[in-house]
Here is the input.
Amino acid sequence: MEFPMVFIVCSTMLLLCTSSAYAQTASPPSISPTPTPAPAPAPEYVNLTDLLTVAGPFQTFLGYLQSTKVIETFQNQANNSKVGVTLFVPTNSAFSSLKKSSLSNLTQDKLKSLLLFHGLPHYYSLADFKNLTELSPVPTFAGGQYTLNFTDSSGVARISSGWTNTKVSSSVHSTDPVAIYQVDKVLLPEAIFGTDIPPTPAPAPSPDIDPAADTPSGASTEGKSSPTSSRPNSSYKMTNWGIWSHLVLALSGVLVLFL
Here is the structure.
């Protein structure tokens, strides 16, 4: 009885060990969970209002952009387009040098077009201005006939709108997708102010100078010669009067001797 009993116990233990080993080999390997990637950070947009506020004397231009809401057009282009934006920003002194009637007589639509005329719907670095000379006339945000002509002379970029001819004074911000350049004149389009452009005034002629005015010594010499010339005349008269008085006295003495 002991042997069968031992056999049964050993068989039972063998079966249990075999089943547990099979369970370990058959169980799928544990897989560690893959971490979820962090979302990409949102791109940092250039705030055009903040930039123009602190970058230079552009308060007048910025005021017009805000009042006409053209700033929203430029900002939307900077944030949501793949080609970027380029702005030409006149200084405060550029506006103050304009005639008072230049902008005050414009309708709201024309004023908005004039402001859109200062922007290109594409990002252009300073190195790209050489290419713009070949692409001229270049369309602006105002569209249609509102185009600009560019020239590059020895690395100096110049802009012509027909009524305005100015150079790019400095780069305020030039990082894709936003480029902002300072100009010293307001860009006045022919589409608003017409093609009857007043001619550039000729330089004032140099004043004619009298040669005598350059030689005051000659005049002073002549002025001094008159009193010197009058002095010999008076001395000559005095000499003659002295001779005649001596002769009269001598004759009077002779007459006295004979009498």
